[in-house]
Amino acid sequence: MKSxxxxxxxxxxxxLSLTGCDFFRVIAGRPxxxxxxxxxxxxxxxxENVRKEQARKDSVAAVQQALEARKAAAASIExxxxxxxxxxxxxxxxxxxxxxxxxxxxxxxxNVDNAExxxxxxxxxxxxTDVIRYFSGAVALGTCATDDxxxxxxxxxxxxGQSFCRPDAWILKKVAE
Length: 177
Fold this sequence. Notes:
There is one protein chain. By secondary structure, this protein is of the alpha+beta class. About 55% of the residues lie in helices and about 15% in strands. Strands 1-5-2-4-3 form a 5-stranded mixed beta sheet. The longest helix has about 45 residues, at about 35-75.
């Protein structure tokens, strides 16, 4: 009898050493370590999918929010206190291709050298300035040129009160070609 108990004990110890707890889990009808690992992997994959989906939703929401801000800014440009002229209504611009959707036009000059000097002075103050040559030979100076209405309003806040920003300045708004 002792040899039987020793044999069974040895067999049980051998099974434990070869299979670990999974032997008893199978007998008890419980999940094995492989089952537990597979389930943990499925849970981790599901959590990753949920995280990616939330990141996608957040990205879409951020884009929609930015678009709404641009729409609101574009509408508020009309209320900045400057005349807003669409590019197709400025006869001197016929055929001239504008690079940006918005520009603050700070003056028109017949003397190109004077316009260039003023443009350089404005650039030295940290404001990007464009010299737009009309077909008539005159040149116009524009600053705050950008395609983003939010950025344009931010530029306008910086330009207000500058000596070069004259009371007769006006906003040139590019019309889709």
